[in-house]
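queue> pop job 88
queue> type: inverse folding (structure -> sequence)
queue> payload:
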């Protein structure tokens, strides 16, 4: 099963939010440490996957944002 880049990012976010919750709830430091180490590793993996993702688009900077289109003057 191939996991896409956004899935890696969602898993990383979930783990790092869990670290913050565990730290606030005074869980054992070993749990917080290992989840932090796992989260940092997954962050590096997700950045690598996002940068090497085979995503192409025909949009340019002249197109501005898709949700706020700006008319072109030609």
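queue> result:
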């Amino acid at each position: 099963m191939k996991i896409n880049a956004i899935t890696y990012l969602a898993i990383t976010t979930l783990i790092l939010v869990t670290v913050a919750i565990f730290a606030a709830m005074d869980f054992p430091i070993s749990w917080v440490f290992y989840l932090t180490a796992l989260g940092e590793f997954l962050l590096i993996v997700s950045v690598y996957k996002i940068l090497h993702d085979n995503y192409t688009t025909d949009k340019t900077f002249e197109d501005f944002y898709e949700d706020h289109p700006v008319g072109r003057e030609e």
